[in-house]
Specification:
It is found in: Endoplasmic reticulum lumen. By secondary structure, the protein is an alpha/beta fold. The protein is about 45% helix and about 10% strand. The longest helix has 18 residues.
């Protein structure tokens, strides 16, 4: 069985390498020279198997991580835990899990993807069963849209053939060429199998800034009304997010994924306040093995840019630059 899967993996990489001269960005991910990286991937594949030893969902771990490491996101924490838990504990899902995470930069979308991977795969984001695509890097040339579609289909089919419980993360969806993501629509639909391959146990996560302004405005409205942000509910935002994603000239623009209700949930990430930035700094110090210092966290957080300019309510970059800036405040 392992030999068969290795053969399929080689076929995916080698077929992708044929087009290296045509467009570098995506084939760099698919084959990356078909040299050292291919060898490294095969080595990794031979030492990581698609079985419970390497793939085992830790529901408690995800709950703890979302509760202790993700700040200011009461809606996202609850919805993601519920969605992932229900999917991973279902032995016979009807379709893949499809999550669309929306919010301004630095609010935790990529971080949540990492937490999900960490609590499913033993190797976390380094697992050979976790695949990350960045629209700016991997799908940059609009003239190659048809080629991207073909290779994306091939990549997903090949990897799910190797491991049904694969995860695919699409970052910068708001910058993806419209129509590209629709090429994988059959894989996200309610099919038992397609050409002998079942996609029903895979996870697809879309990360997008689309709708971030809508989310921020809703949070600001609550703040101005003196209402607690924890009062904001999913139903206050989900429909607005789906419409924003559908109407914006981006990856999900007029997408059949939305038309056919194949996105399981549109998850809003709220803009972060000063107190959340402080929490992020304290968590970063702890992660580095340092003693959390509230004075350091306070100074760093105060130097962030906040909006609206007059009220300084929300961090314009969320917690995104903390890792890079912290060393200057120690």
């Amino acid at each position: 069985m392992k030999a068969t899967h290795l053969y399929l993996l080689l076929q995916v990489f080698l077929s992708a390498s044929v087009l290296v001269h045509t467009f570098d960005p995506f084939t760099t991910v698919l084959a990356v020279g078909v040299g050292a990286t291919l060898g490294r991937t095969i080595y990794k594949y031979l030492h990581e198997s698609c079985d419970p030893k390497w793939i085992a969902f830790d529901a408690t771990g995800l709950q703890v991580d979302l509760g202790n490491k993700l700040f200011g996101q009461h809606i996202a924490s609850r919805i993601i835990l519920q969605a992932v838990n229900e999917f991973m504990t279902n032995d016979n899902p009807k379709k893949p899990l499809v999550l669309s995470l929306h919010g301004l930069s630095g609010t935790g979308k990529n971080f949540v993807s990492q937490l999900i991977a960490d609590n499913i795969y033993k190797e976390g984001m380094d697992s050979s069963f976790v695949h990350i695509f960045n629209s700016i890097i991997h799908f940059s040339h609009s003239s190659l849209l048809d080629t991207y579609k073909s290779q994306l289909q091939q990549w997903i089919k090949g990897n799910i053939s190797n491991c049904a419980q694969s995860m695919f993360i699409f970052d910068e969806m708001d910058k993806m060429h419209p129509g590209l993501i629709d090429s994988i629509k059959p894989y996200l639909d309610y099919y038992h199998k397609l050409d002998g391959v079942s996609y029903r146990k895979a996870i697809f996560i879309f990360l997008s800034n689309a709708g971030g302004e809508i989310i921020a405005q809703k949070a600001l409205d609550f703040w101005k009304a003196g209402r607690d942000r924890e009062e904001i509910k999913l139903e206050d935002l989900e429909k607005l997010l789906s419409l924003a994603a559908f109407n914006k000239n981006s990856g999900l623009s007029h997408s059949s994924l939305i038309d056919n209700n194949l996105v399981d949930v549109f998850v809003p990430f709220l803009p972060l306040e000063y107190r959340h930035v402080v929490q992020c700094v304290m968590a970063e110090m702890k992660a580095r093995g340092l003693r959390p210092d509230h004075g350091v966290a306070d100074r760093l957080a105060k130097d962030f840019i906040y909006f609206p300019e007059s009220e300084r309510v929300f961090s314009s970059k969320g917690c995104k630059t903390i890792e890079r800036k912290l060393k200057f405040y120690l």
